TrEMBL record:
Gene3D superfamilies: MetI-like (1.10.3720.10). Residues 86-270 form the ABC transmembrane type-1 domain. Belongs to the binding-protein-dependent transport system permease family. Keywords: Cell membrane, Membrane, Transmembrane, Transmembrane helix, Transport. The keyword Cell membrane applies. InterPro entries: MetI-like, MetI-like_sf. GO terms for cellular component: plasma membrane. It is a multi-pass membrane protein. It is found in: Cell membrane. The chain crosses the membrane at residues 93-115, 127-146, 152-175, 196-223, 248-269. GO terms for biological process: transmembrane transport. The lineage of its organism: Bacteria, Bacillati, Actinomycetota, Actinomycetes, Streptosporangiales. This is ABC transporter permease.
Length: 281
């Protein structure tokens, strides 16, 4: 009689353990703590702004409490004035800022890498780098008129300098050991610039770009205060002349928020292009 062989019983392997709830809770607590630490100074600032006028430490007519400014900000947003003026300012700032990157980065790379170009242009750069953009605003208006061209041009001029100077410095301060090592491998100058100098210069270049981003907003506001019919600078100047003080501070808060968002976006772009850095956050 043939013996029967029982089939082995297959048992399921051990399931992967679910992530402990404590780890998730700790992560949420850490994120909340980080957010609180980063916002405590801002909260304290707005608290002082609210309490100082109410305690008569400053004249509430000229510095109203923030609780009076926020309704004015809401009214401007609801009427559409805030959005139309913000759009006009953004177009001018982004146009000048984008052109400054297109001009400053290539020119800075040329000046920093090629000595003959540096010897040719350095005297001219030294002449104009110490001339404040705001001081040249009347010249731009006289030459280019009071339209959009003069405002974009003054933003372009102001933003080009931090980008240009940081790019030149970034190229010139690349570790000489890296360049010598690349040359010892027989790489031509163009390949050394592409594979060694350019990646090493990227962090400093982005530092100049971030500085230019803040400058673009400030210079644009000043240009709009001098001669414009729309924009956040025009909104602030018009509110000040009409003694609509809450509206004036509402425009200032909008500019602060705009600059904050602008800088945050530039930080994200910088992280995207500098992932190779071991100290990147």
């Amino acid at each position: 009689m043939a013996s029967t062989v029982e089939a082995p019983v297959l048992t399921a392997g051990p399931e992967a353990p679910a992530p402990p709830p404590r780890r998730t809770g700790r992560r949420a607590t850490a994120l909340a703590g980080t957010a609180l630490r980063r916002s405590v100074a801002v909260i304290a600032f707005f608290a002082v702004w609210e309490l100082a006028p109410r305690a008569q430490l400053v004249d509430p007519v000229f510095l109203p409490p923030v609780s009076d400014v926020l309704p004015a900000l809401w009214d401007l947003a609801r009427s559409g004035q805030l959005w139309s003026n913000t759009e006009a300012s953004l177009v001018r700032a982004l146009a000048g800022f984008g052109l400054s990157i297109a001009v400053g980065v290539p020119l800075g790379l040329l000046i920093g890498w090629y000595r003959p170009v540096a010897e040719l242009l350095n005297p001219l750069l030294e002449l104009f780098r110490n001339t404040a953009a705001i001081a040249l605003l009347p010249v731009f208006i006289l030459v280019l008129g009071i339209g959009e061209t003069s405002k974009i041009a003054i933003v372009l001029y102001a933003c080009t300098w931090p980008i240009l100077l940081n790019t030149i410095s970034a190229v010139r301060t690349v570790d000489a050991t890296l360049v010598k090592s690349a040359r010892s491998l027989g790489l031509p100058a163009a390949r050394i610039f592409q594979k060694v100098v350019l990646p090493a210069a990227v962090p400093s270049v982005f530092t100049g770009i971030r500085l230019a981003g803040g400058i673009s907003v400030l210079v644009m506001i000043v240009a709009e205060m001098v001669g414009a019919k729309e924009g956040l600078g025009f909104l602030i100047g018009s509110a000040q002349q009409n003694f609509a003080i809450p509206d004036m501070y509402a425009g200032i808060l909008t500019i602060s928020a705009l600059g904050l968002v602008f800088n945050y976006l530039l930080v994200l772009i910088e992280r995207r292009f500098t992932r190779w850095r071991t100290d990147a956050r």
